[in-house]
Specification:
about 300 residues; alpha/beta; Arc Repressor Mutant, subunit A; D-Maltodextrin-Binding Protein, domain 2; six-stranded mixed beta sheet; transcription; LysR_subst-bd; DNA binding; DNA-binding; transcription regulation
Length: about 300
């Protein structure tokens, strides 16, 4: 197999026809150029160049190798350049997933800021259902995903918290709890909490429905669904309750569901997640844009 330094040396010398200029072009010594050419000629079995004290010229075999190698090597260089441009640069398409209407609205602002900084990189925002979040991320269907935290997975990297919102409990509108102005986390022991899909990280599902209340009372979990709308439909039908962020009551107002504040519950935190092994410069740049946009906005405690 032809080594890269051999091909580069041969092509450069075939163009320059001068060992000194070739060495300067490749930023190596003249002796290194001579050694490389001699080693290549030994492998080929015949001279590739005719050298005299006054001139260097290609042999017939050298011209044949040049004709065969130059277009192929140009394709190799172009392929490598495209790979470098995609991996280190900001071209191509970045696919970002979100769950819930509020997440989509946030990503629109991030995408606009990212586009002003990197206009040659296209951003496509896609809605992802709860059950598909991690499968899409791991399969490459999306490059990043805006999700609730915590996401403690060994192959997944996460950025900083972008949004923190108060936690509410979605309850059936006809339930006695719907008339309350506020609830406590301890109240979860008296109801059935609907489960998030099993495809989501265990850390996220445990944050959504803890095994016990702070006092140690067990929390009973109920049915599972794949989407937020399905879960809210189950709430409205009286099959259980659902902890949600404050934005859910604005974007998913329903006559069969009431949202009651949980002031003693930790906030719902949102941020970006991506596969650690597949992080490109564009992924990191999008995360940086998201962080800059979040810091530029006035923090609000939604209740």
């Amino acid at each position: 197999m032809l080594e890269r330094h051999e091909a580069e040396t041969f092509l450069a010398l075939a163009e320059e026809l001068h060992f000194g200029r070739t060495a300067e072009r490749l930023r190596v010594s003249t002796a290194r150029v001579s050694q490389t050419v001699r080693a290549l000629e030994r492998r080929v079995g015949a001279p590739l160049f005719h050298r005299t004290s006054r001139r260097v010229e290609l042999s017939a075999l050298g011209r044949q190798l040049l004709d065969d190698l130059r277009p192929a090597w140009a394709q190799v260089d172009a392929a490598l350049a495209r790979a470098v441009e995609t991996g280190r640069g900001f071209t191509g398409t970045l696919r970002v997933g979100f769950t819930g209407a509020a997440g989509g609205q946030l990503l629109v602002g991030v995408a606009e800021l990212f586009h002003t900084r990197h206009p040659d990189c296209d951003v496509r925002i896609r809605e992802v259902q709860f059950a598909d979040l991690m499968p899409w991320l791991r399969s490459g269907e999306v490059d990043l995903a805006l999700t609730t935290f915590p996401v403690d997975e060994p192959d997944v990297a996460t950025g900083p918290v972008l949004v923190s919102e108060a936690r509410f409990l979605a309850v059936p509108a006809a339930h006695d709890l719907a008339a309350r102005s506020a609830l406590s986390v301890e109240d979860l022991a008296a109801v059935t909490v609907l489960r998030l899909p099993d495809t989501l990280p265990e850390s996220l599902r445990a944050d959504h429905a803890p095994a016990t209340t702070p006092s140690g009372r067990p929390v009973r979990t109920g049915r599972c669904a794949s989407t937020l709308q399905e879960l809210l439909t189950l709430v409205g039908a009286g099959h259980g309750v659902l902890p949600v962020g404050a934005s859910t009551r604005r974007y998913y107002a329903r006559p069969d569901v009431a949202y009651v504040h949980l002031p003693d519950a930790p906030p719902v935190r949102w941020g970006l997640a991506w596969l650690a092994a597949d992080a490109t410069a564009s992924v990191h740049a999008f995360g940086a844009a998201a962080g800059d946009l979040a810091r530029a906005q006035v923090p609000q405690k939604v209740r």
